[in-house]
DNA sequence: TCGATAGTTCGATATTTTTCGAACTTTGGC
DNA sequence: GCCAAAGTTCGAAAAATATCGAACTATCGA
């Protein structure tokens, strides 16, 4: 499987982050990753077809907001909390509550 | 002149703010309003036609990011710094340097 | 090796945004 | 009242995004 482009922390662009978060579904995904931690795609799909869900996860990935790893047959998505915080301190706090962990 | 819709502080929606800031021209406008204070539209237009500039200012206004007042024949645009800070603390700090004033 | 599961990719269509000229509005000055 | 300056609005065309089915890929288990 070809791997999606994942920008390094210092390559994350504010415009891209804002664009990614301007969609209600994607904003909700980020919030849930923030509160609930790593999730599979289907755990967060809200009865959308998978191609649509996959598209939104890709936008989040390419903007630098999430990282995806394989775990068996599923793909687990995690918020790149530290990378985002380092690049744009305070941004995540505006968006998503801190996870209690 | 009919006045554009200006959301109250508590009506400002994060999605709208993110959408407004996802355009490079609008992000730059917000940064300049933040550093240089109130500006006319034409002071910030970068050789774009005025209808295009006007469109972008409208998006910023409707998202709740700026406020516009008449001053003679020009319209002065100001960042709604306090309203945004109250609604989404820390957001502006990610975007725009604080104005020294 | 054969299914089944979880996503991804492709392609086509629909929706949303952006762009820009032309006409219009408002205000100030002569 | 008339003109100029600064924006706004309208409408149409171009560009970017979103949506969704169908075909494809990768991994696990039997």
Percentage of residues assigned to helices of chain A: 40-55%
CATH superfamily of chain A: Winged helix-like DNA-binding domain superfamily/Winged helix DNA-binding domain
Average pLDDT value of chain A? 91
Strand order of the largest sheet of chain A: 1-3-2
- Estimate what percentage of residues of chain A fall within beta strands: 5-15%
Order of helices and strands of chain A: HHEHHEEHH
CATH C-level name of chain A: Mainly Alpha
Number of helices of chain A: 6
> Distance between termini of chain A?
32 Å
Q: If classified by CATH, what would the architecture of chain A be? A: Orthogonal Bundle
Based on DSSP secondary structure assignment, what is the total number of beta strands of chain A?
3
Oligomer: homodimer
Largest protein-protein interface: A-B, 17 and 17 residues
The CATH topology assignment of chain A is: Arc Repressor Mutant, subunit A
Structural class of chain A: alpha+beta
As for the number of domains of chain A, it is 1
Residue runs with pLDDT of under 50 for 5 or more positions of chain A: none
Radius of gyration of chain A: 13 Å
Largest sheet of chain A: 3 strands, antiparallel
Form type of chain A: globular
């Amino acid at each position: 499987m070809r791997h999606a482009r994942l920008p390094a922390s210092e390559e994350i662009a504010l415009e891209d982050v804002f664009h990614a978060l301007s969609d209600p579904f994607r904003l909700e995904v980020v919030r849930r990753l923030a509160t609930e931690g790593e999730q599979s795609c289907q755990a967060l799909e809200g009865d959308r077809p998978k191609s649509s869900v996959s598209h939104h996860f890709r936008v989040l990935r390419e903007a630098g907001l999430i990282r995806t790893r394989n775990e068996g047959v599923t793909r687990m998505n995690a918020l790149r909390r530290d990378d985002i915080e380092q690049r744009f301190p305070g941004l995540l706090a505006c968006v998503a509550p801190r996870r209690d962990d």
